[in-house]
Amino acid sequence: MTMNVYNLGLQDSILNAFMSEIRDVKIQVDSLRFRRNLERVGEFIAYEISKTLNYVTQATTTPLGTCNCRVLAEQPVLATILRAGLPMHQGMLNIFDRAENTFISAYRIHNGNDDDFDVKVEYLASPEVEGKTVILCDPMLATGSSMVLAYRALLRRGTPRKIHIATVIASEAGIDYVREHLPADTSIWAAAIDPELTPRSYIVPGLGDAGDLAYGEKD
User: Fold this and answer.
1) Helices in 29-85 by DSSP H: which ranges?
2) What is the pLDDT along the chain (219 residues), one digit of tens a residue?
3) Is 113 helix (H, G, I), strand (E, B) or coil?
4) Most CB within 10 Å of its CB: which of 5, 62, 111, 135?
5) HSE-CB of 91 using CA atoms within 13 angstroms
6) What is the DSSP string of 126-142?
7) How far are the Cα atoms of 9, 19, 53, 98, 194 from residue 134, in angstroms, in the given order?
8) Domain ranges of the chain
9) 131 and 10 in contact (C-beta within 8 Å)?
10) Do 81 and 141 meet the contact criterion of CB atoms below 8 Å apart?
11) Which CATH code of 2.40.10.340, 3.40.50.2020, 1.10.730.10, 3.40.50.300 fits the domain covering 4-208?
12) Residue-level pLDDT at 121
């Protein structure tokens, strides 16, 4: 089975206007707008993922009668890698407003220089995910190691039936790494896919450090 990768930026849509602002160094200085644009991208990707989920018919009573409506058969679990994933997670939650939520901490530990680092997962807050659909979001899919470690941490709470990876910008190397380490039926949804990584594993042209731009620089 081939892993499905959806590059939503290949089609002309308003999503690309949000992406232009997210990347623009002149607009990035407005952290409020940067967070809101991450949220918008989360909403957009959530809508696209919603088209692939399972639905049932529900009879809905209106003031004038009854209407048969198609509604979600079950809610997904929204999983987010802290801290940069929070605005995107909120966008997802705006769409899947009844979803359960998972939060995972994953961060880089540098080994003496900026180019050599490990990724550590330290915290997990999650409902049971056994047999459920999980949407795991992080703005940047760079090397893919944080995403894979977050998925492995999630397995402490059960094995999901289906995993969707949602990201603002993915690198080609990150996608390849996820392909190697996550289930074959995983789907990757990206607003853009960029070709390169710097020696420090930042995506080029990318957007910089999403966490710092959203919430300020960290020590």
Assistant:
1) 31-50
2) 679 999 999 999 999 999 999 999 999 999 999 999 999 999 999 999 999 999 999 999 999 999 999 999 999 999 999 888 999 999 999 999 999 999 998 765 555 555 544 556 778 999 999 999 999 999 999 999 889 999 999 999 999 999 999 999 999 999 999 999 999 999 999 999 999 999 888 999 999 999 999 999 876
3) strand
4) 135
5) 28
6) ----TT-EEEEE-SEES
7) 23, 24, 11, 14, 25
8) 4-208
9) no
10) no
11) 3.40.50.2020
12) 74
Give the H/E segment covering residue 179.
Answer: helix 172-181
Query: Which neighbouring-strand residues pair with 144?
Result: none
What is the DSSP code (8-state) at residue 161?
S
Sequence-ordered list of residues with C-beta below 8 angstroms from that of 32, at least 6 positions apart, any chain: none
Measured CA to CA, the distance from residue 189 to residue 54 in angstroms comes to 18
- Nearest-5° Cα angle at 46, 40 to 52: 155
Which residue shows structure tokens 């999983």?
79
Predicted confidence (pLDDT) per residue in 43-92, tens digit: 999 999 999 999 999 999 999 999 999 999 999 999 999 888 999 999 99
